[in-house]
Write a sequence for this structure.
């Protein structure tokens, strides 16, 4: 049976969403907490984190995943212009980018940001999209792998110890809220954004390790601090 939140229009069809005894969804309950958040203290934490990683020679000191949307771009803008950081943005190209999406990303780059974009092997991406649709009902899953893991690969390759993501969709829109606003390790994404299926899951369906490489996180053991924006 499909349930709907007694406060908003979200339903139980959203993966990992929960409802309490009053029928209120986890997204609404998470939103309530913002009213009691000490934002000044939170900003102090952010400034301390930036001070720990900030470069003093203009070199990149934080990786920000940016696909051309509102949250990644806002985080990168705030880090650069308000907190004096030097962000390197990372973007993973979808199979079928929209015209407005391409325009947004181009405008973001033109406004003064460096963006490294990954275009995965088209055959491998299509194979993953088809398998994800057949077995998960979600052909978008390969893009989620890439947009989550590619920034980690960039950070390791460039020796940047801080990644600052945009909004936490799991908490903001309904999902697992246990680790909300907490630093995460790459493997903890499996149960959340990967719906419990890591890229390696698809090897059993004929996707080779080489085809999966670009969709995976860097070698385990790499030291990174990952923060939600």
């Amino acid at each position: 049976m499909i349930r709907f939140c007694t406060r908003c229009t979200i339903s139980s069809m959203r993966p990992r969403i929960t409802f309490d005894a009053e029928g209120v969804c986890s997204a609404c309950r998470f939103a309530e907490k913002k009213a009691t958040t000490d934002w000044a203290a939170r900003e102090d934490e952010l400034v301390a984190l930036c001070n720990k990683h900030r470069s003093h020679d203009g070199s990149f000191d934080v990786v920000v995943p940016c696909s051309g949307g509102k949250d990644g771009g806002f985080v990168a803008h705030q880090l650069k212009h308000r907190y004096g950081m030097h962000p390197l943005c990372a973007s993973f190209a979808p199979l079928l980018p929209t015209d407005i999406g391409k325009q947004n990303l181009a405008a973001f780059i033109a406004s003064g940001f460096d963006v490294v974009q990954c275009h995965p092997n088209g055959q491998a991406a299509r194979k993953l999209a088809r398998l994800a649709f057949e077995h998960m009902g979600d052909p978008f899953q390969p893009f989620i792998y890439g947009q989550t893991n590619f920034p980690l690969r960039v950070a390791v390759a460039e020796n940047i110890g801080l990644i600052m993501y945009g909004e936490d969709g799991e908490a903001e829109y309904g999902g697992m809220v246990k680790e909300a606003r907490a630093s995460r390790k790459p493997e903890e994404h499996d149960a959340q954004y990967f719906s419990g299926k890591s890229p390696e899951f698809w090897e059993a369906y004929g996707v080779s390790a080489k085809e999966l490489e670009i969709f995976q996180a860097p070698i385990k053991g790499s030291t990174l601090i990952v923060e939600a924006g």
Observations:
- Strands lie at 62-65, 87-92, 114-118, 162-165, 225-228.
- The chain has two domains: 1-37, 39-228.
